[in-house]
Amino acid sequence: MKFLRGIGVSRKTGNGSGGLWPSVFNVATKAEITTNATCGHTGRQEFCRMGEGASGKGRCGVCDGFSPDPGKRHPITNAIDDGPNKWWQSPALHYGNEYSYVTITLDLKQWIAYKSQRLVGLPPHPHPTLP
Asked: What torsion do the CA atoms of 127, 125, 87, 116 make, to the nearest 10 degrees?
């Protein structure tokens, strides 16, 4: 097929129907990503992540965008960085109702037509238990 020359494709035959599928790649690697709120952007904030697995126990921690410790900074750029133990953290709702709606903007620097989208790992999270 001449129109597919230069585009990586693979043949999938899992259910016997076959077909050609484009190669999967991360379109966000060169994108610019911004948000209107990030945990710790104004200083030290506590957060709790929802529990995983059978125990259901959550994990709490501290965000601090000004900390020299990179493990305490969770900027939006971590959302498209595939580094280990990196993630973006929104502010907990405990810090204000303005964090009920957080906007994430991903500028791909080009026009792209797509049929579907899926964001993974963005469940709501409880506010931290503060003394």
From this structure: -150
